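Revision sheet: structure tokens.
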Amino acid sequence: MGVEPIPLDPELIRVLSGVTTATLTTVLLKKGLRNVWLRGAMPLQAGQPRRVGRAFTLRFVPAREDLATPASWGSPISTRAAIEAMPAGCIAVVDAMGVTDAGIFGDILCARMQKREVAALITDGVIRDLAGVLGTQLPVWCQGTAAPASVAGLTFVGWQEPIGCGGVAVMPNDVVVADSDGAVLIPAALLDVVVAEAVEQERLEGWIMTQIEAGVPLLGLYPPNEATKARYEEWAGKQR
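Predicted:
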């Protein structure tokens, strides 16, 4: 159903795993992209590792009583069918419309996602069966928990199609990075240039931190003026 998933180069995963979402939002801001941080999608548990992967999208719409029933869970168009279509390494990005009184997934579905080697679940909604979900060790970013099942407030309608999650437009196969600051989307078409600039930004800020620790004042250092840039380039040249 929808767009065919595309694998992500393992080297890009390795590199992005060392880049913070804070840095990525700054780099994307410089590209004119302000709306890339998925509102409400925060770590379910402290200490979750940073996760990087292509977005595998799922979409809910408001509940309609004739469609949102427990019987719908066995339908060909269901969250169960969507999970079975998820490739290893993807990040499931779920448009739950910000609904917080119906849990989209519980422990059984999260356990199956973990078994399929899905990298993470990210949603602007909530999950249910908290203890069980934590037990699956699937990294989750969401708005919290709620006991009622998804059909109490939502109708599942499809996967691998454009969605809105946390107020951000997410296309299938865009790249998502999630860490303790939340989840950030990188448009697929900008991936290579964003990665290159993000790595350089991390290197620059790491050097700036050494200058702060050495007692250098902020003015002219952060952001760097021309003299500071020259000092940085001299330092960076020795590291390459």
